[in-house]
């Protein structure tokens, strides 16, 4: 996705980080009967939001681009592994399992099938009478 196509307002359109509630109201709350002075509550709200915003921005500036580069390389390696290694190996495994399934299915039909059929005929002639 190019920078001109990016939605700069909604930066989590798939709600990947919906679990990260970091608003003041989601973290700090005073129950009824334990309220601080209004100016303390307002000042705490301002300090929390300022510290959270400044700290996040500093960390994003210092670490965001290098981490994005690292994660981009990580997901490129994972994609490479799946395209060139894992998926072909799984396909070979499925082909071999299909061959083995035919082999064992034929063996069961040839060997166990007649035995089971004979046992079924033998036991079907048993009659139990209640006296």
UniProtKB/TrEMBL annotation:
Coiled coil: none annotated. Keywords: Cell membrane, Golgi apparatus, Membrane. GO terms for biological process: caveola assembly. It comes from the Eukaryota. GO terms for cellular component: caveola; Golgi membrane. It is found in: Cell membrane; Golgi apparatus membrane; Membrane, Caveola. Transmembrane segments: none annotated. One of its GO terms (molecular function) is molecular adaptor activity. The keyword Transcription does not apply. May act as a scaffolding protein within caveolar membranes. Interacts directly with G-protein alpha subunits and can functionally regulate their activity. This is Caveolin. It comes from Littorina saxatilis. The lineage of its organism: Eukaryota, Metazoa, Spiralia, Lophotrochozoa, Mollusca.
């Amino acid at each position: 996705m190019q920078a001109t196509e990016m939605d700069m307002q909604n930066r989590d359109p798939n709600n990947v980080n919906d679990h990260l509630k970091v608003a003041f109201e989601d973290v700090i709350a005073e129950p009824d009967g334990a309220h601080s002075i209004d100016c303390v509550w307002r000042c705490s709200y301002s300090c929390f939001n300022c510290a959270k915003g400044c700290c996040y921005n500093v960390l994003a500036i210092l670490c965001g681009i290098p981490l994005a580069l690292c994660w981009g390389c990580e997901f490129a390696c994972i994609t490479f592994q799946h395209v060139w290694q894992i998926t072909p190996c799984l396909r070979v495994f499925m082909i071999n399992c299909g061959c083995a399934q035919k082999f064992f299915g034929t063996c069961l039909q040839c060997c166990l099938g007649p035995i089971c059929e004979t046992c079924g005929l033998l036991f079907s002639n048993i009659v139990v009478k209640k006296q």
